[in-house]
Specification:
The chain is of the alpha/beta class. It folds into three domains: about 50-160, no CATH class; about 165-295, 3-Layer(aba) Sandwich (Rossmann fold); about 295-480, no CATH class. The protein has 16 helices and eleven strands. The protein has a seven-stranded mixed sheet. Helix 1 (about 50-65) runs antiparallel to helix 2 (about 75-90) and helix 9 (about 300-330) packs antiparallel against helix 12 (about 395-400).
Length: about 500
């Protein structure tokens, strides 16, 4: 059985209800503070990115006009335009929730135009053209794209100064009130707060810098304010609010709102020097939160890796699985497969499979006993299965089905999910991604009876910095550590 921290055995404590405890409410849940859903729900109208698309297309066309006999290269020019648009979209250059300056976008826009021209010219008949022609065409493309984008952004910036974008604040009342007052003192930022979503029932007192804002304490009130004011921007004050209000924020994003996280108190700091923030809003550092936080991390590439590797491994280790099942049947009797409810992505329950290495006295013990690693009555073969982690191989089927991933935070039982979530603030955030057979915490030696605080930190760091290459590295390091003295 998986152990997620060093805690005393909870045996003898009253058992929670026999159902999954959802730490992060599933999308669409209307319980608690969730937003009501229905056909009458109106999505805020988002600013169209079509003008930026037209500008980039016009830049491609302007550059093509410099090329002699451009009509002979129409397909290549069209392909070039699609490549540049794809690169721009990947770099979030069509994100209409931000209004950057011309100089801010210049390196990103020109860099992608140059890459597009270089690749197409190297792999097509365009390489026969003089270098001066190609350089001139690329320069014209950059000039038109940057000038056009500057005009589009300037028009939008002037419009926002006259009609600021309505926004909901989500966070502690005092911190949200301070941020709202700063935004009201800075009309040029283009954002106008219309309400604060918090737990306190009282209205925000008048700070003297503008009208007091109502405190919205229920999902119904937030939904009504969103519709009545045409809100398309949500400002989340602090990362703790993002974790605590994950379900509400997910539903606001589903209604078409753009989510920004603001640092109201702390300085922006990124230990690796990356551009983790997307500028500032009235002096507050801000970061764009992905709609449906965490879902983008379960990308197509990650799922393809899971399906291919888990399917291949199931075929390769099927003889080993059959031998283990047969020996376990002879040594320990019938019932070789152990099924247990675990909590996965977004707090959803699933049935995890393992080889049975211990027979609990009751369902209560199976759900609440912490660890059986030192149990003396376990047979030598069961000890061998646990020590070599062969008992975990059946979870490849959970990965193939989509319940789990090869790499991710280890899943835990509902009883301990509830217990750890009450003690460790970072524990619920682990459920932003599919749980896994192995993970960053496991390759750091955090398995068995180890600190839950440390495991939370490594699990959340893995999710925050996820990449497909990181998954590959963790799998390689797990393979090197496959034989170890204690099981997970």
């Amino acid at each position: 059985m998986t152990a997620e921290s060093t805690v005393p055995s909870p045996a003898g404590q009253p058992r929670t209800a026999g159902r999954a405890v959802s730490v992060l409410d599933p999308p669409g849940a209307a319980a608690g503070r969730g937003l009501p859903s229905g056909r009458g729900s109106r999505r805020p109208r988002r600013t169209s990115w079509t003008p930026l698309l037209i500008v980039d297309g016009s830049g491609t066309l302007a550059g093509a006009l410099v090329v002699p006999g451009a009509q002979r290269y129409l397909l290549l020019i069209a392909f070039l335009g699609l490549c540049v648009i794809g690169l721009n979209r990947q770099a979030l250059l069509y994100d209409t929730s931000v209004v950057p300056g011309v100089l801010d976008e210049l390196p990103a826009v020109c860099g992608r135009v140059i890459v597009g021209w270089a690749v197409v010219a190297a792999l097509s008949p365009l390489r026969a053209l003089p270098m001066t022609v190609l350089v001139t065409a690329c320069a014209v493309h950059c000039l038109v794209a940057c000038a056009g984008r500057g005009a589009v952004h300037g028009r939008r910036r002037r419009a926002l100064q006259h009609r600021p974008r309505p926004a909901l604040m989500v966070g502690p009342v005092q911190a949200a009130m301070r941020v709202a007052a700063a935004l009201q003192r800075c009309p040029g930022c283009g954002v106008r707060p219309v309400g604060i979503v918090a737990d306190a029932p009282d209205s925000v007192p008048d700070s003297g810098d503008g009208p007091a804002l109502p405190v919205l304490t229920t999902g119904e009130e937030a939904h009504r304010a969103l519709i009545q004011n045409g809100v398309e921007t949500v400002l989340v004050v602090g990362p703790a609010t993002r974790v605590r209000k994950a379900s509400l924020l997910r539903e606001l994003a589903a209604l078409g709102c753009v989510l920004w996280e603001l640092d109201a108190d702390s300085l922006s700091y990124d230990p690796r020097g990356r551009r983790a923030r997307a500028g500032h809003l009235a002096g507050f550092s801000r970061r764009l939160l992905s709609p449906g936080a965490g879902q983008w991390r379960d990308s197509v590439g990650k799922r393809m890796l899971d399906v291919v590797l888990s399917g291949s491994l199931l075929l390769l280790v099927s003889p080993v699985l059959l031998v283990c099942a047969a020996v376990l049947r002879v040594v320990d009797g019938p019932g070789v497969v152990f099924r247990q409810e675990r909590i996965g992505k977004d707090g959803r329950a699933f049935t995890m499979l393992k080889f049975r290495t211990h027979r609990p006295a009751s369902a209560h013990e199976a759900a609440t006993r912490w660890s059986v690693a030192d149990q003396q009555d376990i047979s030598r073969f069961c000890h061998f299965l646990r020590r070599t982690s062969l008992d975990e191989l059946l979870q490849l089927w959970n990965v193939f089905r989509g319940d789990m991933s090869l790499v991710g935070p280890r899943p835990e039982r509902p009883y301990f999910v509830t217990k750890f979530s009450q003690v460790y603030p970072g524990y619920p955030a682990r459920h932003r991604m599919r749980t896994g057979i192995t993970g960053l915490a496991q390759i750091q030696g955090l398995r068995g009876d180890t600190s839950i605080e440390d495991r939370c930190r490594f699990d959340n760091a893995y999710i925050d910095n996820w990449s497909l290459w990181q998954d590959v590295c963790i799998l390689v390091r797990t393979a090197a550590l496959f034989v170890r003295p204690t099981g997970s």
